[in-house]
Amino acid sequence: MDIAPGLLKVLDGTVDLHCHSGPSPFPRRFDHVEASHDGARIGMRAILVKSHHHNTVMDLLAMKTQLADAPTPMYGGVALNSEVGGINPSAVAVAINMGGRCVWGPTVSAGQHIRAHSHDDGFPSATGNLYEKEVSIFDGTGDISADTDLVTRLVADAGILLSGGHLDGPSMTAFFKTASGNGVKRLLLHHPDFIVNAAETDIEEMLGYGAFVEHELSMYHPDVPAPRWPIEQLVDWIRKIGPERTVLDSDLGQQGNPLPVDAYLLIIQQLLDHGIPATDIRQMICRNTAYLLGLEETN
Q1: What is the CA radius of gyration of the chain?
Q2: CA 199, 107, 109, 174: dihedral to nearest 10 degrees?
Q3: C or N: which end of the chain has fewer Cβ atoms within 10 Å?
Q4: What phi and psi, each to the nearest 5 degrees, are found at residue 165?
Q5: Which residue segments constitute the domains of the chain, with CATH numbers given?
Q6: How far is CA 217 from the centre of its chain?
Q7: Which Pfam families has this protein been placed in (predicted)?
């Protein structure tokens, strides 16, 4: 791939908040150590490792010796799917006490995800039956559950990132309302037009709670099977939401997909070619992401 002059300068200091390196029950192209070295090709500042199934801080601590000389700092967290007990304050407390920087709401266990995917439509499949169950943030009366409320208070006390996962728009809005009310400052809405399918009114309300809107480079890369959207769609999103509240991350690491760095090189150049200023791109890939990961106090 030919790299245009100045592109590496734009990418230097990138923070990827959505890396799917392994180990994982889903097939992965590389492990966390290899992801760290891959990130160094563009001078990444940090990488947040996401697993749908387990606390990734444990991985990183187990790989501490291998990561000691790795060039890009790696961070982890926990996703609240059925594999960790769903909305489980104990799992959150463990992740935080081990140094976790993110708690994801339900992803593969969210009802919205289950309705959107049969696991044979392009979403990666696990090795073997994981016996996943649907996880809700609500109690039997339809209110935010006590465990959900406690999870958001634990995140607030730790000052770390809370992601809405793959919850539907109204559920994520209620999740973020509770989180904001409990003092969570770092909130992230993933791919509003994929799985989540959040309405504009939901997005506006979540923005009001301080949320950032994330878009995944994988969804605009021609070598990723789906959804493979045109770059103009991402340009429209950036102009609609504004770079000050937009985040761009890779959502890559899956077997058979491009490496995260290759996606940054391709898609960021396309954004530059479509008139998105370099300063705005750095806001979205360096400053906003560093703030959400807790590397900076402001963005």
Answers
A1: 18
A2: -50
A3: N
A4: 60, -135
A5: 7-124+136-292 (3.20.20.140)
A6: 11
A7: DUF6282
